[in-house]
Amino acid sequence: MPPRVVVVGLASDFGCQVQMTNIEDQLLDVLGRIELSYWQLASSGHMPEEYDVAIVEGAVTTGEHVALLERIRATASAVIAIGACAVTGGIPALATSGSLDDHYACVYGEGDVEVACGRIAPMPITSVIDVEYRVPGCPIDMDEFTQVLSRALQGLSDCIPREPMCAICKTLENICFYERGEVCLGLITRTGCNARCITLGRPCTGCRGLAEDANLESAILLLAERGVSREDLMTRARLYNTLEEAFTR
Amino acid sequence: MSTLTIEHVARIEGHGTITVDVEDGRVKDIHMDIIEPARYFESMVVGRRFDEAPLITSRICGICSPNHMLTSIKALEVALGVEVSERTQIMRKLLVYGSYLQNHATHLYLLAAPDYVGLPSVFPLAETHPDVVERALRVKKLGNDLTTLIGGRPVHPITAVLGGFTSEPEPGRLVAFRDALLAASQDAAATVDLFGSFDEYEFETAGEMLALVDDDDYAIYDGQTGALDAGWRRPVSEYRSFIEERVVGHSNAKHSTVGGRTFMVGALPRINLSRATLGATAADALNRVGLSIPSRNPFMNNLCQAVELVDAAARCAQYIETLLDMGGSTTPVEFKIAAGSGSAATEAPRGTLYHGYSVDDDGIVIAGDVITPTAQNLANLDADMRAFAPSVVDLPRDEFVIAVERLVRAYDPCLSCSVH
């Protein structure tokens, strides 16, 4: 029997699921190797009782999300967290800076109107359950995703890169933004996206999260030499990584 | 009284539940609850640097991210007094059309079409009608390739920044893409013929219709807001004074009205208001399927999206031709950071999208405001469901559900956008 796969979206822009529908050339091929049991974005029907692999996009922002994740963990033999929202909290976690009630009042006003759904402070799914695989980035890189999905279907181990972006960026012969006096977070950000933004003339904004092998302290010193304060660097790094402890110090 | 609940309406972007109360075979009430959790975008941009705001607000939606990004950039350019080159404006229009091709193909074939042939999803169609599915994927891929050509990737483009673009495609790639667009015109025409062949419900919305309008262009990137019934045109900078938003209890999305009336935005209002500026091939396609304009039938939004595919393919080929001939630069222009406020609008695939920001002297955002197309449509959709449901309530339950869902899907709602 082919592996049964479900795709679930929590709080997100659906961008990573949209990316998944964007592999037109490979989509029909991949569909031939799995049984796609549930994908709300693409099909009518309900989430099944049993499945093997769960692909989860989005941040956790309600109690229902927590309960759903616990059910998924109890059912699936492998969970793949996709996208910055699911892996680091991403953009939704910006709402954890300051009080949630203040954010709420800013958008919906101070009135008595009770808006739908219980709400909790946004967090990545990895704060609620353990996952076997992570595909970081905003949005996910499709080459990396297909590789990880393939590994999950074969039961191979996670292969998330640990090195910072500079390692690959140098081999691509990109001109370093620091040569041009601009701040680039490639210095501390997890590689794996082929330094796509930098290659297209835009500094890295850190959407793939802090690299395990990054030397944050020496990055802070290097930026200080260039007149960028530690606080400024941390504020920039928190854009996609508000919950990263190393960026709050 | 019995209550029917359609949970997690399928084949739409986001999570919505329709509740229908039926008494003695009559529909007493029907409405859609948006069960997407609140997402606080307007609050999250506050305190961030101005150039981060487009990165943040484009994450409202993975489908129309180019629109969110560009509308945000344009609003900030107004706030900071930045003027961009004509070449930059054409590149930006191509970026918007990339999302049209991608969104319309996805919506029409993957989300809407299964209803017309009685299937739960597009996947079984791959077996029975491989030619149709292959066409759908070709058009969708064309849109993704266009967004990638100009923006660097299909979701959340990289190269568009305040003042211009950080990178431009090589002329050779532009030439190849122009040829691909010309070849795609047959696929676009076949899409119009397919959706023109489907039986559609006879139904008229009672709401107003709004879209950007421009005398000289099919307005998707610029223009004023026009109202079909009221006949006015207003600068988009006044959007807060003509669109009233209110918080409603059953939904994390706000509801909108204009002059006290609910209203619709999207492909149908656009064609109703801008028919005269459609290109020749799109005007031909419209005549061929015999859709009489103006139309007040929201189900025809699907057919209008198909007509826009024809228009987009021809228009983008022309834009690329212009880029190849005109010269000029898209290198981001220099500007000074100073306190200011600005707003802007574009037509996203699903309708008019408004963004507004205020920044302080250091370029830190002090206020943000976004009104998405779906948020504008929701009150009108609820009103349409109340008017439409009684005409199909006698159908067997399954068919009733599909009929109501078809109306919802015709609006091409993006619920995650609506709760930004």
Fold and architecture overview:
- The complex is a heterodimer of chains A (249) and B (420).
- Chain A contains ten helices and five strands; from the N terminus they run βααββαβααβααααα.
- By secondary structure, chain A is α/β, with parallel strands linked by helices.
- Chain A folds into two domains: 4-154, 3-Layer(aba) Sandwich (Rossmann fold); 166-247, no CATH class.
- In chain A, strand 3, helix 3 (63-75) and strand 4 (78-82) form a beta-alpha-beta unit.
- The radius of gyration of chain A is 19 Å and the shape is globular.
- Residues 112-116 of chain A have low confidence and may be disordered.
- Chain B is α+β, with helices and mostly antiparallel strands and 420 residues long.
- Chain B has one domain (41-418): Cytochrome-c3 Hydrogenase, chain B (Orthogonal Bundle), CATH 1.10.645.10.
- Chain B is built from 14 helices and 14 strands.
- Chain B has helices at 41-44, 53-57, 65-80, 86-116, 125-128, 130-151, 171-197, 239-242, 267-274, 280-289, 301-326, 373-392, 397-410, 415-418; strands at residues 2-6, 16-23, 26-34, 160-161, 164-165, 208-213, 224-227, 233-234, 243-246, 255-258, 263-264, 340-348, 351-359, 365-371.
- Chain B has a four-stranded mixed beta sheet.
- In chain B, a hairpin with an 8-residue loop joins strand 9 (243-246) and strand 10 (255-258).
- In chain B, helix 9 crosses helix 11.
- The model of chain B has no long low-confidence stretch (mean pLDDT 93).
- Chains A and B meet through helix 1, helix 2 and helix 5 of A and helix 1, helix 4 and helix 6 of B.
